[in-house]
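Sample entry (104 residues):
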Amino acid sequence: MSIVRWVVGVVIFLTVLLLSFANADQVTLRFFGFGSWQAPLIFIVFCAFALGVTCGLLAGVFRVARLNRELKKVRKELLAYEKETEPTAESDPAPLLPPAPPIS
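Predicted structure, serialized as tokens:
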């Protein structure tokens, strides 16, 4: 599964790279009437790509953090359960089998 993820990532990156090189003209980016900014299209496409990657990584970080908290909670519950069900010396009766006869 990891190899498939890397292959898809490389294909997307190369597609964005080739698309950017083919469209290197100056463009105007307008911010809903608050202003505008001129930059090469390659720069804007890479910024959008980087923003998307960053958002994806942040979503992954939050998911990993949540799973780590759950794992810590489950481990604590397991340790408490193991301590609760641990056999003690008083509750362990002596073996009921007679001692084995000596071997001659």
